[in-house]
Amino acid sequence: MLTLDTVYQAAFTLKQVARCTDLIRAPKMFPDNEVYLKTENLQITGSFKVRGAYYKMSRLTEEQKRKGVVACSAGNHAQGVALAASRQNIDAIICIPEGAPISKVEATRSLGAKVELVKGVYDDAYLRALEICKETGKTMIHPFDDEDVIAGQGTLGLEILNQLSDVDVVIVPVGGGGLIAGVAFVLKMLRPSVKVYGVQAAGAPSMLNSILNDKIEALKSVSTVSDGIAVKCPGNLTFEYVKKYVDGIVTVTDDEVACAILNLMEAQKLVAEGAGAVAVAAAMFNKVDIKGKKTVCLVSGGNIDVTILSRVINRALLREGRYTDFTLALQDKPGQLAEISAIVARLGANVVGVYHEKAGSDTDLNSCTLRLTLETRDHSHVKEIKDALVKAGYKIVAELV
Pick from 214, 158, 215: which is nearest to 190 by CA? Predict the structure, then answer.
């Protein structure tokens, strides 16, 4: 059984490898509320996962260490196991879904682990890892459904209480449930009045569904930018801990996560991956009641692929009305582009893209289209520009939403 003594032992063991990450107030993001960010995105491997992985592996027998370990992961647990293995001279094989971000795969290899890419998602990688265990006798280091792993993740709860003893609310990302199980257990044992809320991606609500139906349920598929929490089925242990110690679970959309990632970068100069930003998204979009409460959002990881980051930023800018893209139908005659440019300039938008196309085979021979991509201030600014163009006699025939 998980005990506080085990978590304290984990904290002592982790002093030689994991950082005690900073707890940062976020007044620019939350001017009306007292919200803090627990910055596990700045952990040694860019994620909290090293805590549970290292502690679990420190508890292996010498025989188990000699035979080596196997793990499956979308990336962050992989890096945690790889680092722990290199520090403890243990051979490690990591099964990673082939769609995982390249940056996470290469980071795992750079830490010395052998990587096997597996077709499918996390659950497929897990089945392959089990096969390797059976074939080789290596020990499986489960990413969440293991009490030593949960104890390692629970050290975050100890740190939060040491850094903010009168915390009222803690918001935690949830995939398989190892992180929230450990954190919630510690908080409820040491300060029962603290409210602990979990956050899942709307496209992967496996723990939420299981809690609502009071039994573990596996999703047929998952779809979310938050790949670190894209888990089809929660763990048996984690389900029980969540049911007992967590006050509620909410979901956030990919658009809300994108906005959280963008705001963390702009306001706090912090890079978070999708899974790392879901707690912040829940606070930003009022999924959890934080008014008048000292709130901690756990930013669980920052290992985001730069190509994904670029798409996420563009999506967030579009959602916030700071980027717009629409097409006008025009008569093909001189002076129109100059007039449209004058309207846009007068209203203070910045043109970043223009595409002019002559009539197609199915349109009037004297017509053309003009596609504009603009940087704008907000949705009201976008509306002001569109209204001015319509008032000037132009017709908007398409827009990016």
Answer: 158
pLDDT band at 365 (very low <50, low <70, confident <90, very high): low
Structure tokens at 87: 């520090």
Q: What are phi and psi of 334, to 5 degrees?
A: -65, 150
* Nearest partner of 138 among 71, 48, 223, judged by Cα: 71
Active site residue 221: no
pLDDT digits (tens, 9 = 90+) for 131-174: 999 999 999 999 999 999 999 999 999 999 999 999 999 999 99
Token pair in block for residue 50? 């090293």
Q: According to the model, what pLDDT value does residue 73 have?
A: 84
Query: Nearest-CA neighbor of 256 among 200, 319, 306?
Result: 319
The CA-atom distances, in angstroms, between 154 and each of 140, 157, 188, 371 are: 20, 5, 11, 52
- In angstroms, the Cα distances linking 59 to 62, 167, 230, 235, 287 are 9, 32, 28, 21, 38
Is the predicted pLDDT of residue 360 greater than 70, yes or no? no
Structure tokens at 229: 């929490």
Residue, of 367 and 58, whose pLDDT is higher: 58
Distances (CA, A) of 273 to 42, 307, 312: 12, 12, 10
Is 49 assigned a catalytic role?
yes
Query: Active-site residue among 38, 49, 138, 287?
Result: 49
Give pLDDT tens digits for 77-122. Answer: 999 999 999 999 999 999 998 877 787 788 899 999 999 999 987 7
Q: Which of 103, 206, 226, 300 is catalytic?
A: 300
CB contact at 8 A, 125 and 96 = yes
